[in-house]
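Because discrete structure vocabularies remain unfamiliar, we first show an illustrative case, written as a sequence plus integers encoding its fold.
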Amino acid sequence: MIYMIVILLWVALDQYSKYLVRTGMSLGETIPLLEDIFHLTYVNNYGAAFGIFQGKQVFLIIFTLIALVGIAVYLFTQRKKLNWYLLLAMALVVGGGIGNLIDRIVFGYVVDFLDFRLWSPVFNVADVGVCCGCALMILGVFLAEPKYKKRDRGEQDDEERGNEYNEW
């Protein structure tokens, strides 16, 4: 049930931060927090990540809805079989997806404001959830999942066996 709390908290944090930007900044305004490194910059994104699919709001809404429903159904039906990190990863993706979906439906665009000038386009809290959730999912699948599967099969990895292979 903790994943439900993560989803709700992430959506709330995203929507509240966007509300503060919409009501406290002018479109296009930038506030340097770390000069030439990190700014708060208010922009409206009519596309998806990195500006792709500009003006394709109906497509983005439908695609997001399908993806969110698929992930949510999997999350709710498989929750007892999934490890904590996969539950957290999917909760972050769903929370972020819902946050941006609300913007697309209500405003026709997504409010972005986190501006790391060194390497990225402007993004928002929802994007952080989606990206961190995806990264956690990838790390979990490649690093932790094989260890859990070995444990479930009763196998040991090299560290658990001790010096068995170092004897020769």
In short: The mean pLDDT is 87.
